[in-house]
Design goal:
With 282 residues, this protein is α/β, with parallel strands linked by helices. The protein has helices at residues 7-19, 35-47, 75-84, 95-98, 117-120, 124-139, 151-163, 193-198, 200-214, 220-231; strands at 2-4, 24-29, 50-55, 89-91, 143-147, 169-173, 237-246, 260-268, 271-279. It folds into 2 domains: 2-173, 3-Layer(aba) Sandwich (Rossmann fold); 186-275, 2-Layer Sandwich (Pantoate--beta-alanine Ligase, Chain: A,domain 2), CATH 3.30.1300.10. It is built from 10 helices and 9 strands. The strands form 2 sheets. Strands 1-4-3-2-5-6 form a 6-stranded parallel beta sheet, sandwiched between helices. Strands 7-8-9 form a 3-stranded antiparallel beta sheet. Helix 6 packs across helix 7 (151-163) and helix 9 runs antiparallel to helix 10.
């Protein structure tokens, strides 16, 4: 596995592969890799000739008082995981590589960035879409791999790619989960033992809603209530939101018709976690 720091080095590596007509897949991450990230890498490895992974803890997507400084950065462990997965190039840009002095351009996907996570974390998605646009410009991959756990983020990036005419195919992989159902997340490492046990409530609430959908329940209010009722058995769980939205527009729905997302966010101790359930025809 090769490693690159600056943008020019990444472009040189990709250009060499292009001359050999090799396909390139890209997995952007903030490091602290877990099985969710590695499932994306494995899918990228299986479907493309070359795989690029970036590790960059993006300061622009963290709001005041969020965990930018304490976000885990286990560089040696991450490097070993990627080497074992046969990643071709690890790109670890510095902040100045992506936000050089005088930089002032921002990318915003209007209409999808102010609800749900956007309402709870103002400015977050401007940070996400801006950095992903920069990463894509540098790597110029054929395929971009994203995870379903961050469903709203994936939807914004899909829209950005379409609107800005970026020539990349966006693929989503299913949410990777721990044995008790908890969605894999770098922030899971913040949880204390009792909090970790309580965190299973998010997946249990979604599983209960899925069972109701399979039985024919289509009322959004009742589905949301099933999640909240499940959470009542987990006293450390503090709801941020429970919402049922259209999977394309992210607008709230009253009745399940077409493809929808049941999206949840909660705090457990000092840790904020998200999860979702996608339902309906493709």
């Amino acid at each position: 596995m090769s490693e690159a720091r600056g943008v020019a080095a990444v472009r040189r590596a990709v250009a060499a592969w292009r001359r050999r007509r090799e396909t390139v897949a890209f997995v952007p991450t903030m490091g602290a890799l877990h099985d969710g990230h590695m499932s994306l890498v494995r899918r990228a490895r299986a479907a493309s000739d070359r795989v690029v992974v970036s590790i960059f803890v993006n300061p622009l997507q963290f709001g005041p008082g969020e965990d930018y400084r304490r976000y885990p950065r286990p560089a040696a462990k991450d490097r070993a995981l990627l080497r074992a997965a046969r990643v071709d190039l690890l790109w670890r840009p510095g902040t100045a590589d992506l936000y050089p002095p005088g930089e002032r351009t921002r990318v915003r996907v209007e209409g999808l960035d102010t609800m749900l996570e956007g309402a709870s974390r103002p400015g977050h998605f401007t940070g996400v879409t801006t950095v992903v646009a920069k990463l894509l410009d540098a790597v110029a991959p054929d395929v971009l791999w994203l995870g379903q756990k961050d469903a709203q983020q994936a939807r914004l990036i899909e829209q950005m790619v379409k609107d800005l005419l970026i020539p990349v195919r966006v693929r989503r992989a299913p949410t990777a989960r721990e044995p008790d159902g908890l969605a894999c997340s770098s922030r899971n490492t913040y949880l204390k033992p009792r909090e970790r046990t309580q965190a299973a409530a998010l997946a249990r609430g979604l599983a209960r809603a899925r069972a109701a959908l399979e039985r024919g329940e289509r009322d959004a209010a009742r589905l949301r209530q099933l999640v909240r009722r499940t959470w009542r058995g987990f006293p450390l769980v503090r709801e941020d939101y429970v919402a049922l939205v259209d999977a394309g527009t992210l607008q709230p729905v009253r009745t399940v018709r077409g493809r929808v997302l049941l999206v949840v966010a909660a705090r457990i101790g000092g840790t904020r976690l998200i999860d979702n359930l996608e339902w309906g025809p493709r």
